[in-house]
Amino acid sequence: MSERSGGRLVTAVIVAHNRRDLLAETLDALAGQTRALDRVVVVDNASTDDSAAVAASYIDRLPLDVVRLERNTGGAGGFAAGMAVALDAEPADWIWLMDDDTVPEPEALAALLGVVEPGGYAVGGSRVVWVDGREHPMNTPRSKPFASRGERSAAERYGSVPIRTTSFVSMLIRADVVRQIGLPIADYFIWNDDFEYSARALRGRRGVHVPASVVVHKTKELASTDADPGERFFFEVRNKLWLFRFSQGLTVPEKVMYGASSVRRWLRTYLRSRERSVIADGWRRGRRDGLRSRPRRNAQALSGLGQVTIAVEAFDGVER
Fold it and tell me: What's the superkingdom here (predicted)?
């Protein structure tokens, strides 16, 4: 039997695009949580299958809102839209983020709340595994490199680890933090949107990785982010350069540290690729756009989407 605890309100935000069957698995898993959700917002990113209809069919099982976007805004735009809608009218204390190929185990939400609430954390992330139970390298959190001994000890009491960034594949964030820092940057479209956003959320705040909270990330393959990405490598390069140039999430020493790590990852991606010319082209275009442009404000990137745009505009003056 699902139940709430402590009167805290939790809203889940799921971004969906053309994966109706996986979306159904995600919604089944949300309906089966031992700690019931107070609201679920499904953002349908202009799917051409019947993902929106599949989501709507859960109205009797979940406190559900389906937000259908007229164009595909990518994962970054979908999360920005969904979080804005989630906080527009209904109260919430926590926002739980995930993609439509994320299947939480029944205790996933309860385990997250059981650590972040008593520990006073701003962000919590789940242990992400693949379909065979192995750790998913795509969603490994970055541990906090300069965590104090006290912070590490406090996290260890809950069987957890202090983190500096985490993935949108089961990220729980306090709603008041969202109101303080704003939304994910929609113009990232895909890749590094969660890196930038969780870094921003955790600058000056504490976050924790909760291994007792487990979700299954049903990607086609068990691969890390430096696996052969093809043309999408453009987003990796451009968005990283945008992050290092404009984001308020990282300190200067952190930008140097993570920048060096990114260069090593880019080189590794190129050397492992079977289509090196595609990777090289993505690097050139990403470098050009990352150095010559900057992301638009969300109200501009998500313009023309009716009530979604209005909800996003409420965050547009928030420092990011």
Answer: Bacteria
